[in-house]
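Example record

One chain of 211 residues, shown exactly as stored in the release files.
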Amino acid sequence: MTLATILAFAAMAALLIMSPGPNGVLIAKTVPTSGKAAGFANIAGFAVAFFVHGTFAIFGLSLLLLQSAHLFLAVKLVGAAYLVWIGVKALLGAWRGSPAKLAEVAPARRRRTLARAFGEGFLTNALNPKVAMFYIAAFPQFVPPGSGTLWAAYALVVVHAALNLAWFVPMVLLFDRLSGAVRSGRVTRALKALTGLVFIGFGMRLATLKL
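Predicted structure tokens for this chain:
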């Protein structure tokens, strides 16, 4: 696996992480009442869920795709359409200037235990359709064929989890200041526009990918 492949995957994964979504909403609800430790437990749950998504993509979907060229074509076209749709949706959001949902999040009403915070983080990320579709539609195109495929695939999952850590740990530590930046209309619109362009580009790339 080349450095260019890792960097391309990291760029796309980072945009997915930074775009407003349920993970950020959960931290916004958890930290004000349950503290930093609960926020870190949320993040740990996110990371474990990435490995669940990655394992399914590596051992489940990949084996099915190798068995059928028609299935590969179908999944490829659906995945490409999904990525382009996400990109167009993000561009429309940037053009309309819709506010980030994080601004509307109310803190949790009661304190969470670390185990509960971990479970909530895991379930939030494991059941997030945006993350699931990312691993079905985009993840396979970054995994190189060959004898080292398994290790290369899990290395990409580790990169995704590390980027998630790098984004959400500062949000937990400096939540008040960072939440204001995330709620900034200008920052949100720029992030959506960039995300839209990148996802459309990867959707077009996936549509031309060959087995």
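Notes: The longest helix spans residues 22-67.
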